[in-house]
Design brief:
- Helix content is 4%, strand content 50%.
- By secondary structure, the protein is mainly beta.
- Strands 19, 20, 21, 22 and 23 form a 5-stranded antiparallel sheet that branches. The chain has a 4-stranded antiparallel sheet with strand order 1-26-25-24.
- A hairpin with a 2-residue loop joins strand 11 and strand 12.
- The structure holds alpha-D-mannopyranose.
- Alpha-D-mannopyranose binds next to strand 12.
Amino acid sequence: MNIYRYEENPLITPLDVVPYHDGYEVIGAFNGGVAKYGDETLLLLRVAEKPIAEHENEVVAPYFNVKEQKLERVSFDKNDPTYNFDDPRMIRHKDNLGGFIYLTSISYIRIARSKDGHNFTLDKEPFLYPFNEYQTFGIEDARVMQMEDTYYITFSAVSECGVADALVTTKDFKTYDYKGNIFAPENKDVLLFPEKINDKYYALHRPSAKNIGELDIWLASSPDLVNWGDHKRLIGVRQNSYDDGRVGGGCTPIKTEAGWLILYHGATKKHRYVMGAALLDLNDPSVVLKRTTEPFLEPVAEYEKNGFFGDVVFACGTVQEGDTLKMYYGVADTSMAGCEMKISDLLHHLERTSCLTK
Ligand code: MAN
């Protein structure tokens, strides 16, 4: 299937972002949600900032102190046998496998604006910055759904309580109304459908089963976009496939004549992230009509393969113009890239490579 990657890729890298905090460096400007606002394309970038260590053996972890409303840092010694520093994204306890204590960077959402969809200018201030006890380790991976003149923004709220999903609404991308956590931990990748279906709102979400179960995409419905129920497992991981480790919704569902087009990320157990697609029934999104057995986008470009966490393409939004779909995606947990494809090509790809197993 034909995908045109923008020649300017990567469109935004950490070097384009001035740190918001003194003594910090920007290590990521990625996984940006997408909105069309007036004549501009907005990317709601996840900016990750890391405290600069004072000496070679220091590992520093940031957290937002809610009471004091300021960012603080905790220092660790790389040689301390109590901790495991192998995963660059986090610090774990050694004796308790999987025992997580801190992230090595803090993320918040900053807006990049563009008139041509290729050249972006960054806002100086964050748009969404941690403000409550569910966000002490940051705000990550925003997704935007537009209904009339209101934009609904979902994001991961990360703290020692786990990763929850929160919702805010805005009309101007300057101020916002907080609607609370709409999914409890651990859950990620909430995508709101852009219209009611048979008088109900729908969302995709990805509970992160820790004990029994897999990292599958679920469907929920709601009367008001805030209270969610009727949870159904929708798109699961598949053994021996590009998505045998985890799946999660990527872009706001796109309405086509053939059904709701879902662009999702699938990762192997070794954390290679690609983009797959599925098609849901227009009148009943709990019915999966088709699902790709081959990804439509894989990390092949240098900027997709190498970075803070390589071999990752992670799309969080699109702009649709007729049959053309402009997709913006995070690469290697580091930068932002853009590409274009035809929706009709995606539907053919689904037709050609479809398999119905959930
Ligand atoms: C994973 C990665 C990190 C992220 C944490 C918390 O480890 O996606 O980038 O910060 O989860 O969400």
